[in-house]
Write a structure and sequence with these properties.
The chain has helices spanning 22-38, 47-66, 73-91, 96-115, 127-151, 166-191, 193-203, 209-234, 253-280, 289-317, 320-323, 326-357, 361-385, 393-409, 412-426, 441-445, 452-457, 459-462, 480-491, 502-512. Helix 1 (22-38) runs antiparallel to helix 2, helix 4 (96-115) crosses helix 5 (127-151) and helix 4 (96-115) crosses helix 8 (209-234). By secondary structure, the protein is mostly helical. 66% of the residues lie in helices and 0% in strands. The chain crosses the membrane at residues 20-38, 45-64, 76-93, 100-119, 131-149, 170-191, 211-237, 258-276, 296-318, 330-352, 364-385, 392-410.
Amino acid sequence: MTLPGAPADVPQSPSPAPRLAWPLLTAAGLALAALLLTEGTGGAFGLNLAVWTALYLGVVTWRARREGTPPSHEGVTLLTLAALFGVTFTLWAPTPDLGFLNALALTLCLGLGSAALRFPGLARAGVLDGLGAALSSGIHVIYGLAVLLDRFPWAHLKPAPAAPRTWGRVGVGALLTVPLLAVFAPLLAGADASFARALEALLSLDVNLDRFISTLGHLIGWLILTGGLVYGALLAARPSLLPPAPREGRLGLIETGVPLGALALLFTAFAARQLPLLLGGALPGGQTYAAFIREGFGQLMTVALLTAAVLRVAYALSTPQSRRRPAFRALNAAVLLPLTVILASAAQRWVLYTQAYGLSETRVLGAAFLVWVTLTLAWLAVTLWRDRASRFAYPALLLGLGTLLVTTALNPAGLIARVNITRDLSGVTNAQRTEPQRANAGELLQLGAGAVPAMAAHLDVLTDCAANPGASGVPECIGASSLTRYLRDRYAETRDPRAWTLAHARARQAALRLPVPTGPVTEPPDEISVPRRR
């Protein structure tokens, strides 16, 4: 960097970064809000998470506008999606795997949205640039708070040496004394019981060292998180710490055409073998569900996802002249067209497996993944045909986040419980299942609060135990008293208002309507995998 008018060959020292108080104060305020919303809830999230994400969205966008930097559309969109994922934990109780995916999506939206808030262009960024920004947002959490502390104008807190300001200097000293005593006094009290009693008698306060240390640790953790997010959203010099990916490839049509042509032939041969199975709509002779459907579905989904990556990499490595040639578009079409048959085969396997065994969390997530992959490949086909595949990554990310939100809104726990209980009541049989399926109470309990209303409404079905308990001597279902006691003990209590969720409120109402069990009961096992017969 050179100053105006200085000789170009004379190195100039960079100007120091400006000292700002508001970034650290913003992070501290958000951390304190997070602590107040979550402390004492036992780690439960619900309304508190939705309130905090909405608060973060409002604060950082208002602060960016106040500093004269209009927030980018991409950043606001991702932070809004983060707020929506916070709402999903308030309205529904996601199943375990779905809850993990929602938490991951919430973290990604917060980090990537913060990184892109002041830097428009994410919609045109490539896959590597987007990954670089997401990785950088995670790195910001490591050192963001340290930067905010370094940029804080600590010199302004130093009092002037003038005599009339003596009381101000004393006040500053008192302010600095409070945190020191707040840290060291409880530590010394925990080390010596007699000192603790003397300190309590002096202050007439109950010193709960464990709670104090726990609260202090939570506050520091929230401060580190909010410091990293605020730094990325309001102070970072660029969204990604990695250099931008090259925009133009060097391979010609022959170099990319040979592997794409071979892949197209392979897909065409496989699709030709799948067409009779698609038209037949049944399990091939000699095949088992585990080999043909469960494992086959996962393998076909892997093929579809890897194909999208291969086509995108081939586009990135090709020269601009090769990308615009009709032959390149024809090669992409030759790969994608038989891939539609492969996707149809995967969908058929999912249907056959569901007809045989009903719904489960894994099957619901598998269907959602199939929908996202199909939409992503359709968008990739459009961008490849229009020679705009460089803009593929951001819409594909939005498609994935939208699919996850819609899946959560369907309340998979309640959907699985209703479908499987209905199959039990109706005695469903088909070409894939010759004996009626029984709903498994142990599996439904693992889905969480979303399945409780359906379970409570059909308690007689779920507790209809087999007459012969089997060689183990244990009944192949949960007894009515045990299941009722379990539901009442787990869901009948009032939840902390900060962690309120609509799903738990409905589960509580359903549990309270159950009769109070009488007589000895046993806790239900964690899982019951053996199907029961009538």
